[in-house]
Amino acid sequence: METTNVTIKNAWPYQQDKMNLPVPDLETAIPFYETIMGFQVVARKDAPYKSATLDKGGFQIGLAENGGDPTQDGCFFEVDDVEKAFAELKANGLEKSEPKFDHQKHGTTDWKVFFVVAPDGLCYCYGERQN
Fold it and tell me: Which of 85, 90, 114, 122 gives 6 a disulfide partner, CB atoms 3.0 to 4.6 angstroms apart?
């Protein structure tokens, strides 16, 4: 089930740590990341709390039942092709009819972006650098 058409080049967490993104229930969160986002679980831990490391094409994020507020966290993913990224998510079953592409400027970089909110409340922004 490897459908890694889109390359994640980099990621920046909204809070502190992309390897410690808060979820209320790890087991109910994981299927969205595997089925829709195309990640695979590569490691799990039970201490100090339940957590999992997920990998997509060599790029990793972590989900954790750490008591944090998922609605205040997530990641910005830099991708090679933002339109292909949305098409891949949609092909995997994302229930969002339109990507609602937007343009954002951070420093001197212009980004074409869209957002996906996971069922666990974490928000992901996919962005492609524009010339």
Answer: 85
